[in-house]
Amino acid sequence: MSRAATAEERRALVGLSRVVEPGSRAVVLAVADRGPVAVWEALRHGRPCGGVSPGLRAGAALRAEGYDPDHDLVRMTRSGLRFVTPQDDEWPTARLWWTPEPGLEAPPLGLYVRGAHRLDEAVARSVAVVGARAATAYGTYVAGQLSTELSDRGFTVISGGAYGIDAAAHRGALASSRSPTIAVLACGVDVAYPRGHDRLLGQIAQTGLVASELAPGTSPTRGRFLVRNRLIAALSLGTIVVEAARRSGSLATLSRARLLHRPVMAVPGPVTSALSAGCHDQLRSPDDPAICVTRVEEVLDVVGALGDDAAAPLRGPVGPRDGLTDTVRLVLDALPVRTGLGEASIARAAGVSSLVVQQVLPPLLAHGLVERTQDGWRLTTLGAGRPGTELRAHGPSP
Amino acid sequence: MSRAATAEERRALVGLSRVVEPGSRAVVLAVADRGPVAVWEALRHGRPCGGVSPGLRAGAALRAEGYDPDHDLVRMTRSGLRFVTPQDDEWPTARLWWTPEPGLEAPPLGLYVRGAHRLDEAVARSVAVVGARAATAYGTYVAGQLSTELSDRGFTVISGGAYGIDAAAHRGALASSRSPTIAVLACGVDVAYPRGHDRLLGQIAQTGLVASELAPGTSPTRGRFLVRNRLIAALSLGTIVVEAARRSGSLATLSRARLLHRPVMAVPGPVTSALSAGCHDQLRSPDDPAICVTRVEEVLDVVGALGDDAAAPLRGPVGPRDGLTDTVRLVLDALPVRTGLGEASIARAAGVSSLVVQQVLPPLLAHGLVERTQDGWRLTTLGAGRPGTELRAHGPSP
Lengths: 398, 398
Known about the structure:
- The structure is a homodimer.
- By secondary structure, the first copy, chain A, is α/β, with parallel strands linked by helices.
- Chain A folds into three domains: 7-79, no CATH class; 111-303, Rossmann fold (3-Layer(aba) Sandwich), CATH 3.40.50.450; 326-384, Arc Repressor Mutant, subunit A (Orthogonal Bundle).
- Chain A contains 17 helices and eleven strands.
- Chain A has helices spanning 7-19, 25-34, 36-44, 54-64, 69-79, 119-123, 137-152, 165-175, 198-207, 222-235, 250-259, 274-284, 296-303, 326-334, 343-350, 354-366, 381-384, and strands at residues 82-84, 111-114, 126-130, 156-159, 181-184, 209-212, 239-241, 264-266, 291-292, 370-372, 377-379.
- In chain A, the strands form two sheets. The first copy, chain A, has a nine-stranded mixed beta sheet with strand order 1-2-6-5-4-3-7-8-9, sandwiched between helices.
- In chain A, a hairpin with a 4-residue loop joins strand 10 (370-372) and strand 11.
- In chain A, helix 2 (25-34) packs across helix 3 (36-44) and helix 8 crosses helix 9 (198-207).
- The longest helix of chain A has 16 residues, at 137-152.
């Protein structure tokens, strides 16, 4: 799995994404272990395959009856959309790989994409802006304004294409033609959902990207929205909630961002507004409070933490270790590639304070340059930055 | 100084409060050391007195020329106001004593008070609500509503008697007749400042208290507002800022609350409102962020942290150790009265976790039951709670 995907592998992943609901830990682990072709051949016949449950196998076999992935491949070509696999150059490996673990759905098997941008470049500097469907004029204004300014500063705005805050975020980003915006859907990328956003989604695809792990033509379900939310969180450097009622669905995106150790931000609002209560709860969260953001500069303080990312626009592909400050380099150079190292030991090795280490590691984690182990922290292959190092998309770093 | 003040001492303190600006560290230390009579006799003649600077002595002597404290005492009786000294029963010793140190003005020499309530009882359960003079309709509404609900729950609302948020807070508290409200002024308690609040201040004095450390008839100055702010912070269990522009004067009250280790709270608002920007800055403060509060329950979570204070109304005088939870008692019992003890040692002695100790100590500090020393923490005489223990108002605990 550490070379370009063969046509057969691509066909198998397309098939799997058609017959299996996204987010399954067992399926992703089986694909990492046996390769997509073997897993596809097993599941389409409902045969045993690693830890995949009998129920999931039976469901896959039922859906696979009379189905041929080639139909999808032809249909995709006709509709001008593509299927990006973890072996493709444009796959944002550092963002879209994590250890499948309870509480967080597994990473995607692949992504259907509409739009001309390379996926990895589009998400290199990106922020998710999410919130309530039933947004107020205040929330819509703030989401739009913030997204225009983020786009002006060269940041891709990622959202879910829904009514309310999502739409305001996409429209705000479109108003600045500086950076693409990405709609990550809970249905096929060719499905107009909500129906009223047919035109908006078309505009997004023209200048940005519409992405989904669901096969073309698939309708959204409640479960798919929740599983989709982890993708919005994972693709972004950080997630902002602009307006959300208590127990709003958009808060699920924040909890997934937390599980992925990505920064979580909330925009405050009037305490008299029920649609800001969810944001205020996030700011008051006893364990891991959201960062209060009120202006684009404050967002850049959070997501532009690596080097001078926030100041300089991205021109063409940038290496993962480019643009880092000296302090960040010191910490990176002190990190091992195999066994994890504790923060105090990293600080000693780097010759910086523990506080600096604690401040530097989370953004490095968000950028996929370091990862947590049982013993502490270590470099990912991306973080090691050795030219020619093969990135293994479906397994942990060596 | 550990018995009731004599008539001569009271007269000396009235004289000192007339000729010396409040907040002087040197004067308060001199009074603690030599007693008020000696300091008054020295300063009224401009003579050397402890660490009091020649400039301050000269100013005091100039003001004392032809002045007789008896004039003030007679005037006070006529106007229905009283001078409360640290030796009086109603002095809230735990709140109004702290080590005079750079960065925070010294505690008051005494307080002029209009109103029937005992000062110590009125501040026993109290919250300061402060904010911008040029408040918006939103801020005025929130300050009023919060103050009514605090008063309904038996909490005294303390503010500064100014236009805007202060007035809304007082009026909100007056709307609930449940608890008194206290206006702490930067001028004499008989001065109608601002002029438009003549009637409001009269209403506050009728059902609550108007208090100031400035001699009757004294006009406000910029410096007196700043020095007054520490009194608002010191008299309250915690301070809330409802609306404040960046660099607003009301934020000075919060910085004084922080210096006094009292909890600091901020009410969020629209990010589009310049009058909420100061509140949001407080929530984002890197060192010691304000707690985000949006409803009265969230305020009670902060200031009602000691025992079941928040649930049960105060009926008559309550001992300082009444109503504490078992955990708080364990921590208190583990604290020494002489040498300070570190948090880890306290945790060991109390048989609770360090986290519990860290959570319990700040409210105990705010209630005046414990204090910080160079080595750690120890009980105050109030915290030791020994019946008949003399409280030394003008010196640290034994």
